[in-house]
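Input sequence (417 aa), recorded before submission:
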Amino acid sequence: MEAGCIASRHLHDFGEANMPFVIYIFTLSAFALGLAEFVPIGLADVMANSLGVDVEQTGATVTAYALGATVAAPILTALTMGWSRKSVMLTTALVFSAGSLAAALADSLTLILGARFIAGMGHGLFLAVASSTAARLAGPSRAGSAVAVVFGGFTLAMAIGVPISTYLGGMLPWRVILGAIAVFGAIGFLGLLFGMRDPLPAIKDGHGGSALHSLQALLNGKLLAGALVTVLGYAGSFAAYTYIAPLLTEVTGSSASTVGVFMLVYGVMAAIGNILGGKLTDAIGLDRASMLLIAGIVLVVFGMWAMSGSLLSMGVLVALLGMFTFAAVPALQARLIGIAERHAPHAHGVAAGLNIAGFNSGIALGSVLGGMTIGSFGLAYVGIAGALVSGLGLALILAQMLKTASSPHQAAESPAS
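Predicted structure, token format:
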């Protein structure tokens, strides 16, 4: 198998023996994507002052980026299924870098939103293709770890890049920081250009890898049901996390400066959780790992309601939320790719794209749900709302696992479950 040959040629000792080196090039680009998605949160005040708009309006920069990723991930993945994997990733890195540079140079919020949407399109397609390619290169037994390595760059950006960028935002113009994101994207482009030997060519099937056939996979009921687990699980997490700063200051009684420490702890634990999630997925299987991690999210966000008055308890819970939320990334991503392996073998990339869309949809849904909860019941209840919606995701995955177990044919085919 060609992937096996590539794996044997590209050994890397980052703690993952036999992991193809090209996967670490994907990680470099994912670092830029992580910066792009979350850095504007910390720059909201300075951007608003510079552009002459309200702070809440600058929040649309995050929404526009997430919408670009949501739209692009499944649809463009399907449309580019006949392209070589290297060509797709080079194109996405170029689109992302160009959109990020345009956002840094734009002189109005409207132009920034358009540029961020374009950059988000590159984000969604790149992560979908990179994660599915990494999983195929590593093989079923190491798919979780391979996806975790890709998303390691994303979580590293959250743990280190975003806090540093927020700090620098107080000393440097925000346009310089957004421009730096474009530079990181360009570095990732060069890494792919010169470091990727295109170990996996275009995905072909009995239908010639046609775009129409790939788009039809988006209507596959099992793939959509698998992606819905991701949407619900992440919506519960971000119903609480999106409003963690006001929750800590207004309900828990934390100072504004302490909130920054909480955010740093969240990011560090997200990076650790990403690694643990990949190892857990390889150790106990795709379904069981996904189920346990979503259950962890449910318990943690419920605890954020029950113990919101305790600063120490909230510190522990914020750390656990970062860990469980991003430990679920490789598990859920590899799980949906596994579902595609069984029920839509031609749609690995489409499955990965659906899950990337699921992550971003979950972030958007969680933010809306949390806002509605605050308006109706108050800040303290965002944990309850999050637990309920993530609980729906947990119930859905349990139902899917029971259905698979009741079908001997499917159970026999289920990889690492």
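Checked by second reader. The radius of gyration is 20 Å.
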